[in-house]
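Morning. Coffee machine broken again, so started the prediction first thing and wrote up yesterday's gels while waiting. Chain of 264 residues, entered below exactly as on the submission form.
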Amino acid sequence: MDARPRWFRNPRAAKVPEITVLFWVVKVLTTGMGEAAADYFALRNLVLAAAVGLVGFVVAMAVQLRARRYRPWAYWFAVSMVAVFGTMVADALHVVVGVPYPVTTAAYAVALALIFVVWQRVEGTLSIHSITTRRREAFYWLAVLATFALGTAAGDLTAISLHLGYLASGLLFAVAILVPLAGWRLGADPVLMFWCAYVLTRPLGASFADWIGKPHPAGLGLGDGVVAAGATVVIAVLVAYLARSGHGVQTPDRSQNPAAWSRR
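Came back before lunch.
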């Protein structure tokens, strides 16, 4: 029996879901929800927005890290709160500090690259199928947070700095995300293609959320609050299905690491 405190024990099973079509659907929805929710709170009170984002992020990470295997509610709650918090971090550098979007985009790209380099050197793999230790899980969530910040900055860069607008930006990233899909189908490295697609889901979902929520003429004018609430409801329904059906639970590969699965 592992006598270490719960927080420091290694997971009993993979802590992230298998990559399926439904995974990508929920992921894009969380990006849109995070963008809309962050903007909704920020327009009302920046201090309140920062508090909600930080507290939500900390609580979600605590719930996720405490689990010893993949739990849909814990995992997607964490992703959703990272979406909100990552959006606020990215927006703060531009809105509060005044750093231009091209600079923030480049900075977050460098930060993400550094995380991947260190992760690869320390663990030898960036595969989501390897998230079976606390250290790998820490690298994973650092990378996820950086992808959200990078995606937020990139989406604002195309929509605002390059004057494409929200709809055109959404369509641009919808086409762009087909590139890693095609690469994967043609035999390119699946881990690299996964992370490329993961980064692109952020500006994809956020651009369409902004287009639906922002007032005319930039968007359809439904409101950020309506978009955030609607996306949250759909996410909750899909996660309830995931939790009930067991869809997306990774099948353990006992041949590679039998000890990791012996206590399941």
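The chain has a mean pLDDT of 87. Going to sketch it on the whiteboard this afternoon.
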